[in-house]
Amino acid sequence: MKDKNKQFAVIGLGRFGSSIATTLYKLGYEVLAIDANEEQVQKLSETVTHVVQADTTDENSLKALGIRNFDVVVVAIGEDIQANVLTTLILKDLGVKYIVAKARNELHGKMLAKIGADRIVYPERDMGLRVAHNLVSTNVLEY
Ligand code: ATP
């Protein structure tokens, strides 16, 4: 049975992060969504539990949000690799139990692993793999 008391935080509300945040919320979980950009924050205001504007490379902002109490924190910051890595490092230092981080390439992924991210995802690569597999599987019409 799924534990619906699990609390999630998603940092970086681009296409990937907002898709994760809104999906988890629709599935019945509590979701805190965070982005530095006010526009992104506005877009999600109706579709997650809480949404806040914060720069997550600032340790004090993350502390003030009580980030260490969340069961899973997703770092979905994309283009700004420095912000992605710094945020992951701070989350790790603050003792977050399970960190999922999005990587842009293999080297970035390696760095995230060294910092201690628990799961590293490569959205474009993983989706490419999935589509390719689907194209050659017997149920081509399924995807
Ligand atoms: P996607 O492919 O998911 O659309 P992307 O890879 O193009 O996203 P970005 O748009 O660069 O990624 O980043 C995703 C979000 O992360 C943006 O909405 C951006 O405002 C946010 N972000 C960037 N830096 C920070 C930061 N320091 N703190 C919080 N949010 C940030």
From TrEMBL:
<protein>
    <submittedName>
        <fullName>Ktr system potassium uptake protein A</fullName>
    </submittedName>
</protein>
<feature type="domain" description="RCK N-terminal">
    <location>
        <begin position="5"/>
        <end position="121"/>
    </location>
</feature>
